Amino acid sequence: MDELKRTDPEIYELVKDEERYQLESVRLIPSENYVSKAVLEATGSVLANKYSEGYPGRRYYEGQRYIDRIETIAVERAKALFGAEHANVQPYSGAPANLAVYFALLKPGEGLMGLALPHGGHLTHGWDVSISGTFWRPIRYVVDRESQRIDYDAVRALARKERPRMIVTGATAYPRQFDFKAFGEIAKEVGAYLLADISHIAGLVVAGAHPDPVPYADVVMTTTHKTLRGPRGAMILCRKELAEKIDKAVFPGLQGGPHNHTTAAIAVALKEAASPAFREYGHQVVRNAKAMAAELVERGFNLVSGGTDNHLILVDLTNRKVIGKKAAQALDRAGIVCNYNTVPYDPRKPFSPSGIRLGTPSVTSRGMKEAEMRRIAAWMDEVVAHIEDEAAIGRVSGEVREFCRAFPAPGITV
Ligand code: DSN
């Protein structure tokens, strides 16, 4: 980044600081990852210079000879990897992608049923402060109070009562697998579309480490930068008969020109995700999450639903007498980065909830395995147990920095 250094040393230094931070910390935010150098190179390419409103072969600007080929490759790779009939790779990110799906298939005011935000759902699945809960009639299902898992009978009963036009399955803080077949049956029974938002688990799906929604959902949406390990962006997959509506909703309905540098990087990430190494990666992400969960339980942590089936762990810290925000901040000072999070039926407010959310996609990308997960869980225990003791937190921070040295991060050259 010599040129950046010369032109704007202030930004250059901050980028380098962030790079060091990502290298020297244990990153447990479940929606984050490390992309490869190849993905970074495509993202930082001259494709950023080009306008391409429209779709391959149907653009509103000339000069698309290379861009059309790049977008076509991305689309074909997405279709092949997920076994989908149609793919749109232009959404800028997950929130606009979900909005495009609603815009394509729902009339204003029709019922949109999703997992409630405090129970692990996403803002764009019909929460009040989001346009999704304002333009459409929000209907919210919750997890069962005892099992802290989705109760499919309760979802069916709610759908029968409320008759949504669309049901959304997917979450940002749900540590268990989704039964897409059950959701598909419920949606069919009430005449609703089923949207599977697999943003968090797309990498696990392609690796065969989580059931596949494509046979059951009318539309599948995923961001490309979480377990899928691509650039920040999103894709919408659907059957042929919905393709035109979806494409029109993305452009010209909601967006202007696609971010071609992102499209190219998505294509690269999809190629990487089709490799046997990625398949192994997806399974290791889950093995690592299970190992970390088991160690945390062993150390007296209370996990929502008792454990995990995927890449994510939700810890309820109530029994440790520490609030989520305080724990997340202390862990960050110790070099372990996670986020505070509500837990189902949380008596506390979202800005200072009872839990923290952890995930293994990033640490697995660095080659860490089960033994390292147990080590990290032990550090977390130490920090939470000594939350007021800056000397103890400082000691952990030194150990974490040293530990990270042994695990190169993809995309970061030391
Ligand atoms: N913000 C993402 C997450 O962290 O789960 C979802 O959009």
Give the topology, please.
Layout (H helix, E strand, L loop, with lengths): L1 H6 L1 H16 L1 E2 L9 H7 L10 E2 L2 E2 L5 H18 L3 E3 L5 H12 L5 E5 L21 E5 L10 H11 L3 E4 L10 H11 L2 E5 L4 H6 L11 E5 L10 E5 L1 H15 L5 H14 L2 H23 L3 E2 L8 E5 L7 H10 L2 E2 L1 E3 L13 E5 L1 H5 L4 H16 L4 H15 L10
Parallel strand pairs: 1-13, 5-6, 5-7, 7-8, 8-9
Antiparallel strand pairs: 2-3, 4-10, 9-10, 11-12, 12-15, 14-15
Helix pairs in contact: 3-10, 4-10, 5-9, 6-7, 11-14, 14-15
The chain binds D-serine (DSN).
Description:
- The strands form 4 sheets. Strands 4-10-9-8-7-5-6 form a 7-stranded mixed β-sheet, sandwiched between helices. Strands 11-12-15-14 form a 4-stranded antiparallel β-sheet.
- It folds into 2 domains: 40-273, Aspartate Aminotransferase, domain 2, CATH 3.40.640; 284-404, Aspartate Aminotransferase, domain 1, CATH 3.90.1150.
- The radius of gyration is 21 Å and the shape is globular.
- The chain is built from 15 helices and 15 strands.
- By secondary structure, it is an alpha/beta fold.
- The longest helix is centred in the last third of the chain and has 23 residues, at 276-298.
- Strand 8 (193-197), helix 8 and strand 9 form a beta-alpha-beta unit.
- Helix content is 45%, strand content 13%.
- The site of D-serine has 4 residues, from loops.
Strand adjacency order, main sheet: 4-10-9-8-7-5-6
Mean pLDDT: 98
Bound molecules: D-serine
Q: Helical percent range? A: 40-55%
**CATH fold name of the largest domain, please?**
Aspartate Aminotransferase, domain 2
**Structural class by sheet pairing and helices:** alpha/beta
Low-confidence stretches: none
Q: Percent of residues in beta strands?
A: 5-15%
Order of helices and strands: HHEHEEHEHEEHEHEHEEHHHEEHEEEHHH
How many individual domains? 2
Broad CATH class of the largest domain: Alpha Beta
Number of strands: 15
According to CATH, the homologous superfamily of the largest domain is Type I PLP-dependent aspartate aminotransferase-like (Major domain)
Radius of gyration computed on alpha carbons: 21 Å
Oligomer: single chain
Overall shape: globular
CATH architecture level-2 label of the largest domain? 3-Layer(aba) Sandwich
